[in-house]
Amino acid sequence: MEVDLCFVMDCTSSMGGHIKGAKNAIERVVEYMANMEPTIKIRVGFCGYRDHCDGSNRLQLFDFTNSCDEFKHYLSGVSATGGGDAPEDVLGGLNAAVTRITWRSPTRVLLHIGDCPPHGRRFTGLLDDYPDGDPNGLTAEQVLREMRSAGIYYFFGKITEYTETMTEEFQSIIGEYPVFDIKNTPDPEGLVEKFFDAACSAINTAITLSESC
């Protein structure tokens, strides 16, 4: 079984309390999956997103690799920084993950971790510099349907209640998908366990769905 697993993560300052635990969990998932070869051959990629005010730091992309060490080395350079208003460039991050890295394996998994919704009144009543939606013209319909047409299974790790409306809107477009509850985790080790369980569950679910198609 060959699997592409892409982690998409909000890397703004508001994620500072979670990003270290999330990075440790990602490393643990990568090591665990590497030890499952040849049963499962996994390639891992990463897309970190921030907000439109962050310029060249808005997106951090790392294309798929089957090297655990290479991926861990890249991840060590990812930090929580930037961000302006409450919403973030969620659609830009998801779009980049779908269209700018090289998905290849038959089973494709995208695990999204974030604490804030995309821009636009449709998703939030929080203070928003772009209340009319993504300033680059991206829509949830466009991004999610491109994801679906590419055969990518979407999973979301919920950290706060601010993403409730986003989840409802996304599910209205592509149907139900698993949402993993990663919020209210008081200690870093607990966060690692929740994240690890979510990632493994996402991979197993996607493999089952792929085999049933």
Strand order in the largest sheet = 3-2-1-4-5-6
CATH topology: Rossmann fold
Q: Which series of helices and strands comes N to C?
A: EHEEHHEHEHEH
Q: Please, how many domains?
A: 1
Question: Roughly how much helix do the residues carry, as a percent range?
Answer: 25-40%
InterPro entries: HMCN1-like_VWA (IPR056861), Thr-specific_kinase-like (IPR052969), VWF_A (IPR002035), vWFA_dom_sf (IPR036465)
Pfam families: VWA_4 (PF25106)
Subcellular location: Secreted
Protein name: VWFA domain-containing protein
Structural write-up:
- This protein has helices at 16-34, 68-75, 90-99, 140-149, 164-174, 188-212; strands at 2-10, 41-49, 59-65, 107-114, 152-158, 179-181.
- By secondary structure, the chain is α/β, with parallel strands linked by helices.
- The protein has one domain (2-204): 3-Layer(aba) Sandwich (Rossmann fold).
- The model has no long low-confidence stretch (mean pLDDT 91).
- Residues 4-199 form the VWFA domain.
Characteristic terms for this protein:
alpha/beta, globular, 6 helices, 39% helix, 213 residues, 6 strands, Rossmann fold
Helix and strand topology:
Blueprint: E1 2-10, H1 16-34, E2 41-49, E3 59-65, H2 68-75, H3 90-99, E4 107-114, H4 140-149, E5 152-158, H5 164-174, E6 179-181, H6 188-212
Parallel strand pairs: 1-2, 1-4, 4-5, 5-6
Antiparallel strand pairs: 2-3
Helix pairs in contact: 1-2, 1-6, 3-4, 4-5
